[in-house]
Amino acid sequence: MASRLITKPLRSRGSDTDVRLRLKPAAPSSGHVDGSWWPRSRDLAAELPTLLAAVAARVGSTERVSYHLGDWGPVGRSVDLDGGFAVRLSGFRFQHPDTIDVLGPQRRITLLVIPPETSPLTADAALAAGAHPDNTDTVDALLNP
Fold first, then answer.
1. What's 61's DSSP letter?
2. What does the angle CA 20 – CA 22 – CA 27 come to, to the nearest 5 degrees?
3. What is 11-63 written as a DSSP string?
4. Given 3-state DSSP classes, what are the helix, strand and coil percentages for the chain, each rounded to the nearest 5?
5. Is the pLDDT of residue 145 over 60?
6. Which residue has the higher pLDDT, 61 or 28?
7. Average pLDDT over residues 115-140
8. Domain boundaries, the chain
9. Quick one: how far is CA 19 from the chain centroid?
10. What is the C-alpha to C-alpha distance for residues 96 and 105, in angstroms, rounded to an integer?
11. In degrees rounded to 5, what are phi and psi of residue 56?
12. In this predicted model, what pLDDT tens digit does every residue of 59-110 receive, in sequence order?
């Protein structure tokens, strides 16, 4: 069964690109992730502008993004966004693989990153599970049900 996200994807303001993202309801954090994201590639600099526009209502103006170094291709220390500001990028080997942290001035969210090569059926299930309000599964369990 297709999720609402795949059949009716979110569209970032000012963008023609749909973002495959589902977030838990805005409430106190529960579980290991705050939502799920299925990027189209492993090019973090290309994927981030659309993602950050989609989560702006939740985190505000993004100040920093942290990620696992092994999950993405080479990227610089920052990415320039529309509006003339840059977001700092911090890659770590100790960050859990298949996650990304988006940090704003008052809020931080951790997203499950579903690998781009994942089949639509499997990705749909992971998108839904990671965004379910009562889900407390680990990242590994979400990706390998």
1. S
2. 155
3. E-TT-SSEE-EEE--SSS--SS-SEEE--SSS-HHHHHHHHHHHHHHHH-S--
4. 30, 25, 45
5. yes
6. 61
7. 93
8. 43-143
9. 9
10. 23
11. -55, -35
12. 989 999 999 999 999 999 999 887 778 999 999 999 999 999 999 998 999 9
Backbone φ and ψ of 121, nearest 5°: -65, -45
Whether 110 contacts 99, CB under 8 Å: yes
Pair 36, 112: CB distance under 8 Å = yes
Q: How much is the pTM?
A: 0.85
Three-state secondary-structure class, residue 40: coil
Q: Which two tokens stand for residue 108?
A: 């931080």
Identify the three-state secondary structure at position 130. Answer: helix
Whether CATH 3.30.2320 fits 43-143: yes
Residue type, 15: S
Residue type, 93: R
CA distances from 70 to 55, 115, 135 (A): 24, 12, 26
